[in-house]
Design a protein that fits this description.
71% of the residues lie in helices and 0% in strands. By secondary structure, it is mainly α. The protein folds into four domains: 1-85; 86-150; 163-226, no CATH class; 230-336, no CATH class. It holds the Pfam family DUF1759. InterPro entries: DUF1759.
Amino acid sequence: MTTMEDLLATQQQIIEAIDKIYINFKKDGAERKTPDYLRRRLENLKQYFTEFHNNHMNLLSFEDQSHSFFNEAQDIDLNLISEKWEFEDILKTLKMRWTAIDSLHWELDNELNGSNAQYEEQFTSYEKYYKKLKRDINQKMWSVAHIEKSTPKIEIATFEGSYTDWVSFKDLFTETVHNNPSLSSAQKMQFLKSKVKGEPERLIQHLRISSSNYALCWDILNHRYDNKRRIFLSHLKNIFNIPAIQQKSANHLKRIHDTTYESVNAIKNLAVDVSTWDPFLVCILAEKLDSETNDDYMDSLKSPRELPVLREFLQFLENKFMSLEISRKKQDNSKTS
């Protein structure tokens, strides 16, 4: 009985054989890339891919799937070989070779004047094969172009398990991938797996890429991270954990402004009513300012006896860090002049 190690060794040999075909293809000059050359290599690739797939199906029958092969194999799409087989270059070479053959054929045809039936029959068969090969290459080029067109162009940041980042990741992935009708479920799963690291990656690493596993994969991540309570706490902690500053700094003031603005809006998106939070938040945030900036803030208040407004506090911070940035830029220019 064939063991798992035997099959894994065979798979490695097949991968090396495919790599060798690709390396040789890149090395060979255009004059060697005849229709017969292309046919033989495509047949070899097809044979290797079939054997690889059959072995992979046998490997899946083993209970122990902890070997690194199972994770690496999921990233191999045997149907997408556009990078290894440059179809445009192949088609160009094929057309160039056929033009030379066709030109020579007309010269021979004029000489033979239809007297050699065997030659005519042989040429006709080659002509039919050329047209079929050209049609197959064009079809593959269209398929690759269609897949590239349907693949999301918007860059989705990798999700590493932060509840703070989950909502934006989920919304963007849902819009560009999950609800994309031109992508198959297997393609969606492959894209999803490429965009998670750390804990979320470990949660779904046991699922191999397939159309049937995509829904389960997406549900697992949603069940873990689509947690409003945890998301709320993560944004609230971001505000509380803003470090206090001892000396005025444009970067520190900008951090207080941006973190507060982003976190409050994220909490609003959870349908939390924050309309009465202003005095509470401003009181906490003002304590994080250096003494000089805090004094400037108090001086800026038109009605210091009234409850503070968060919008006015954030506007003060924005004016302050912009002023500090301009002053620093002037100082840098004076040093270089």
